[in-house]
Each structure stands twice: as C-alpha cells, then as structure tokens.
Amino acid sequence: MSASLSARARVSSSIAVDGFRRRHQQSTKRGLVVRNAKGDIYEATLPKPIELKFNRGNDGGAYVVFVPNDPAYERFQVGDKIEGVSASFGDEVWGAESYGQVMYAIKNRNGDIYLKMLDMDGDVSALTAEKSSAFKNERAGGNYGAGTKEQQMNNYSKKRELETQRLDMFDEAIELYNAKDYDNALIVFEEVAALEPKNYMGDDFSKTTEIYKVAQYNIACCFSRIGKTDESLLALKRCMMAGWTDYKKIRQDPSLEFIQKQPGFTELLDKFDEPFINVNAVNAFKSLFGGKK
Questions:
Q1: Which of 15, 51, 167, 267 has a Cα-to-Cα distance from 71 of 20 to 30 A?
Q2: Which InterPro entries does the entry mention (predicted)?
Q3: pLDDT number for residue 198
Q4: What is the pLDDT of residues 162-212, one digit of tens each?
Q5: What fold characterizes domain 3-126?
C-alpha cells in the first residue's frame, strides 16, 4: 500500500479487529442482539462476501442501502453510516473518510470485515436530494410556483457542479493509474462510479453514463493490476451490463493481462460476446458424422 493511501486511511480507533471478533462471537453465542438508538455506535464483524449493499451519501460517506433477511445482519438498518472499517490488511481500523476508501478496504481485505456503524434509525435523508420548504409546500398543495421553479434551477445547478466534480475526479484517477498508484486510483474510480446520477436517461435512451462504464472498466484494470480476480471480474461484469461492447479490448488489453488468464474470464466474456467458434455447436455437428467430440 502506498504512503499516500496510508495518509488517507488514518486509524480512528484503537480497537483491533481480531479482539472485537472474539467479543462479537461470544455475544452471538449468547444470542444477544442489541438494537441501538439513533446516533449510537455499534460494531460488527462479518465474513466475506458481505451481503449488505452500500451507496454514496450526500456527504461523500458510505451508507447502507440494502440489508438481507439474515440474522447475521439483524443489527443493520437502511440508512446506517459506516464510521470505521477494517484496513485492507492487518488489525488496524480505518476511519471511513469516503465511500471510495471504504469500498477499497472492503474489496481488498482477504479476511473478515470489521465495521463501526452509526445508527441512523432508518433516516435516509443523506441518500436523497434536498428539497426547499417552498417546493414541499407547493407540492403538498398540488401547485407549481416560484418554489418549484427555484428547486428546478437549484437541481440543474447542482447537477452541473456534480458533473464537473466527477470529471475532475476521473482525471485525478487516470493520473494515479498512469503513475501506477493503483490503490489510490481505485479509491477515486469508486467515487466516480458512485456518483452515477439516479434514473439517468441519455439522449440515446441509455440508462448509464459513459463515464460510469469507463470507471467500472478502469476499476477492473486496477484490480487486475493488483491481482484481485473476483473484484476485477465483478467490475467487468458491471461495465458490460452498463453497455460496454468493446469486447476485443477486454480480451486484449494489457492492463487486464492477469485477469485474462484466470478461470471465469472467458466464461464471463462469452455471456456478453458470443465466441467466434461455438464449441458446443461444432461438437454437435461432428456427432452427426460420427466424429469425436
């Protein structure tokens, strides 16, 4: 891990992951499940893969957006915020400074994941766009007036600011990648992907932006460069599901050389890009003439 990444991920707690894991396991054995109040801090240690889903909040932090119906996740609620996360290796706990940093830590850690959580008691305001009081009053009365117009102008202004910020972050990530600082490039690319506008619809009716596709592709490249197979394949899958169709580049890009040699790569690509030779069809054809399969 680079020195600059260490600076980003300052330790905010003296709690060791393994020490907490032992306490958590003891509590689980006793069947203790504590529901906290809003503003309380609670902790959990979870095995990978984590079934929780997270998204970037308005403040740049990582928030829970999906909780599986599983007793192991009973403490969590949608809207809860990550305050600390186990480092990508070792027993340190990193302060959750940004969504990208949290995703980097979770995806790169090989062992169990420690999470220090802020209980929001179901408050999801950090995940929704703010609306002015005038807009709310007009909508409550079924009216369209100055408040609604002001809200629309504010939304447009924020959208333009966000687009500029996102492009700047993308350029920063590219510079980090070109400097072979793949760890920090990953953090910024994760931020870029997380800033994808909700309910986006392009002029060509595409449901994802070009920058999202490229960010996911570059996330795959970063993970390939540092030898993370599952994470790289997942990013490639997201990239292609978003509409990336340059399959030749995926198969030949030197940045993906590591992942191209791993089990699962060809299978994944073939789901999106039909191979030049359909092996099953060839074998079936041979069988008609008594050929060996």
A1: 15
A2: TPR-like_helical_dom_sf
A3: 80
A4: 788 889 999 999 999 999 999 999 999 999 999 888 888 888 888 899 999
A5: Pdz3 Domain (2.30.42)
Its CATH architecture, for the domain 151-272, is Alpha Horseshoe (1.25)
DSSP letter string, the chain? --HHHHHHT-EEE---HHHHHHHHHHHHHTT---PPPTT-EEEEEEPSSP--EEEE-TTS-EEEEE--S-GGGTT--TT-EEEEEE-SSSS-EEE---HHHHHHHHHH--S-EEEEEE--TT--GGGS----HHHHHHHHTT--SHHHHHHHHHHHHHHHHHHHHHHHHHHHHHHHHHTT-HHHHHHHHHHHHHTPPTT---TT--SS-HHHHHHHHHHHHHHHHTT-HHHHHHHHHHHHHTT---HHHHHH-GGGHHHHTSTTHHHHHHHHS--SS-HHHHHHHHHHTT---
